[in-house]
Design brief:
single chain, mainly beta, 4-stranded antiparallel beta sheet, 122 residues
């Protein structure tokens, strides 16, 4: 089982930026992709972004494409989510998860972190 710890959440004003970090234990051989998901109270958990651990291929949801950037530091077993031009919306918990599949599908993720809260408010 991969141990995952997220950090970097907080309170930010609309238009501001935050960088989330996800540290995953073990070797990158233990998983093929790492994804970020988010869930606001009363909402279903949704995919935000995904990165392949083999070739660095990235994917984004339409709602964040062009504003968020996912990246990885293989030496540190860390994946980052740089969030720019944050929009005023419900506070959400951002989760990081790993999968042995080559893509990040909510139902196919294997291990999850406990999440980090992001609040965008004026």
């Amino acid at each position: 089982q991969v141990q995952i710890v997220e950090s970097g959440g907080g309170l930010v004003q609309p238009g501001g930026s935050l960088r989330l970090s996800c540290v995953a234990s073990g070797s990158t051989l233990d998983y093929s992709a790492i994804g970020w998901f988010r869930q606001a109270p009363g909402n279903v958990r949704e995919g935000v972004s995904c990165i392949s651990t083999s070739d660095g291929t990235t994917d984004y949801s339409d709602s964040v494409r062009g504003r968020f950037t996912i990246s990885r530091d293989t030496a540190k077993n860390t994946v980052y989510l740089q969030m720019n031009r944050l929009k005023l919306e419900k506070a959400a918990v951002y989760y990081c998860a790993t999968t042995t599949w080559a893509y990040c599908s909510l139902s196919d993720m294997d291990d999850w972190g406990k999440g980090t809260m992001v609040t965008v408010s004026s």
